[in-house]
TrEMBL record:
Single GO cellular component term: cell envelope
First-listed, main subcellular location of the protein, grouped into a coarse class: other
EC number of the protein: 1.17.1.9
Protein name from the UniProt record: Formate dehydrogenase major subunit
Alphabetized InterPro entries for the sequence: Mopterin_OxRdtase_4Fe-4S_dom
């Protein structure tokens, strides 16, 4: 009896006898027991892939406060559930052990990175921005008032969202910087 059962489980026989030769016959009990990790999520958040300007919709699955899976959002009119390999791997952006969570600084002519606390790094950036603006300020050019600095430029990345880009443009315009660009437009 056991032998007969084993023979009947033989894939070729299951394909010949089954209604759906490429469906049930190709499934093993182990396959049937597998469950998607998205099933165990506590919450699902809607988001946008941060990697490029296409802006594919994502569903971010969270369990116990941690991201467990990121998949394409079928309701997105942009991507209709699809993600390219970069977008499919974006879970690593938040969970990869190699992710940097501290400010790192390499001094001029330095050969290694130093860890800085955030306050120190912000002070250093502020000093540099104010000094550069003061040293490169142009009040006029060819008799015309320009009130600008060409010593400061910004190239934003696609990981910035609309609101962040809006605030950055406001800040740079207030500083007199006119070279403001984003990777998404390149
Ligand atoms: S999934 Fe790919 S194509 Fe879509 S936004 Fe992300 S990187 Fe761009």
């Amino acid at each position: 009896m056991a032998r007969r059962k084993r023979i009947l489980r033989w894939p070729v026989l299951r394909q010949l006898r089954g209604q759906d030769p490429r469906g049930d016959a190709a499934r093993s009990p182990r396959t049937d027991a597998l469950r998607p990790r998205t099933e165990e999520a506590d919450t699902v958040a809607r988001s946008v892939c941060p990697y490029c300007a296409v802006g594919c919709g994502q569903l971010v699955y969270v369990k116990d406060g941690r991201v467990t899976q990121i998949e394409g959002d079928p309701d997105s009119p942009i991507s209709r559930g699809r993600l390219c390999p970069k977008g499919s791997a974006s879970k690593q952006l938040v969970t990869h052990p190699g992710r940097q969570t501290h400010v790192l600084h390499r001094r001029p002519h330095g050969t290694g990175w130093e860890r800085l606390d955030l306050d120190t790094a912000m002070d250093m950036i502020t000093d540099r921005v104010l000094r550069t603006r003061r040293e490169t300020w142009q009040q006029e050019e060819d008799g015309k008032v320009v009130r600008r600095t060409l010593g400061i430029a910004s190239l934003g990345g696609a990981t910035l969202d609309d609101e962040e880009n809006y605030l950055m443009k406001k800040l740079y315009t207030a500083l007199g910087a006119i070279q403001v660009e984003n990777q998404a437009r390149i």
